[in-house]
Amino acid sequence: xxxxxxxxxxxxxxxxVGSRWxxxxxxxxxxxxxxxxxVRGPVGALQGAGCxxxxxxxxxxxxxxxxxxxxxxxxxxxxxxRVHLRKFPSVIGHSSNRISRRYNEDTYSxxxxxxxxxxxxxxxxxxxxxxxxxxxxxxxxxxxxxxGGEGRVSRLLADNLHQAIVEAAPSQERLFELxxxxxxxxxxxxxxxxxxxxxxxxxxxxxxxxxxxxQVLYKSGNSGPRMIFDKWGNVIDKRSLLHxxxxxxxxxxxxxxxxxxCCGYSERELPxxxxxxxxxxxxxxxxxxxxxxxxxLSFDESFFVAPSGLLKLxxxxxxxxxxILCDQNGIAHSLTKVHHASSSRESxxxxxxxxxxxxxxGDTRFLNSFANTRSFGDLVGKAEGLTSEPDIYSxxxxxTLDLPHSERSKLQFGGDECFVCLITDGVxxxxxxxxxxxxxxxxxxxxxxxxxxxxxxxDEVIKYIMAVGDRHADNATCVILRLPNWGNWPNxxxxxxxxxxxxxxxxxxxRTDD
Length: 514
Hints:
Domain PPM-type phosphatase: 91-483
Largest sheet: 7 strands, antiparallel
GO molecular function: protein serine/threonine phosphatase activity
Helix content: 25-40%
Structural class: alpha+beta
Oligomer: single chain
Radius of gyration: 23 Å
Pfam families: PP2C
Shape: globular
Number of domains: 2
CATH topology of the largest domain: Phosphatase 2c, domain 1
Protein name: PPM-type phosphatase domain-containing protein
CATH superfamily of the largest domain: PPM-type phosphatase domain
InterPro entries: PP2C, PPM-type-like_dom_sf, PPM-type_phosphatase-like_dom
CATH architecture of the largest domain: 4-Layer Sandwich
Distance between the termini: 68 Å
């Protein structure tokens, strides 16, 4: 076990030999954990936070072969299969294309986050405990839609945002200090108000995570019974899936990464005009974080391959990329609300009607140029409230084998969901949520489960967009995560005629004609 310490103490307690960090008497297993911290070095990992990095990321998982006993696999990791998450077509499919644009500014990332257990994380946050192994595994899939700067911000997010999330060691004081930096470095009435009301801001969006104030999808304010009982009588609280510290981690890491990396305020001496030229462009972002509901099951990195229990699905939203879930009946559900300039909720947040105008096509624009009111980067609009504050949603999904039949209806989507799909607006502008779900399910019904893997149907979605898109079509990206009930939807295509009509219109029209 490693005591909490400052950067200077960390360097004093460990001897650096090559790329290995050693401590007298440290067990071999714990030494390997310290090597993970040493990959980025103590200063790079801490990013000035003054404590040990909270976790690490990896782009692969270890999968136990069927002919290897679980105890033997745990004792010797060389017996495990190492599977790259981008090369796992039977579970995760991903496809992207520039369509009619010169550059493809869409990016995505697929990573496994390794974090301490909640108890260890809370002890670390209070600066009074010990941190041991990173036992908790969380699957993170994110999709980014860049604009301007030839995809600089979207590539930066795909390469680094997941690392920033696990390295963050947030606290209420650090969040308030970050908001003060926004007020001083970015300026503007919006950040002045946020900082002045920082206590209320923290109370509403972070501390009261169990009240689901962010759950705007339920317009009636009633998401059904809160408590669910499994067949052994254990209580499952579907509205307490996120702890205050977990929500704080997301808010803090998003805002900090945007300020320092996307907007370049780690270089504080630059004049504004130079900074705008050096750090151009912006990007939207949508992410899912999947983990077992029972935290003790998350030591297994392959928990999402064939889960037999319930899963926690946490979703973050910045901008207009979308996340769609298909339930056991083949019905599509949007898991987020997009941050468009036409949104009454966003106009209430910014509270400046002069910032919204309509263009010649009748679409509402923010600051006369932005379709979205939240994004990473876009430094020119930051002072007016073009923020990277994420909307955070949490859902209970997965297998209902351990739930009595009477309890299954209490789940938000009924349980036994089929898949989650992340798409950019190049897809959502062309087809509706249900059309997307039906295209995926009908392709699997037609081709069969052996052929129509998540990778196969993700490619089919992009091929359809290429077929129906015009010469102004945007970049299109689709990432699909298979859930336990994959393939067990009804053999019904609700929107087949509408999709076929779009194909016929595209084939009859001249896409190159003015």
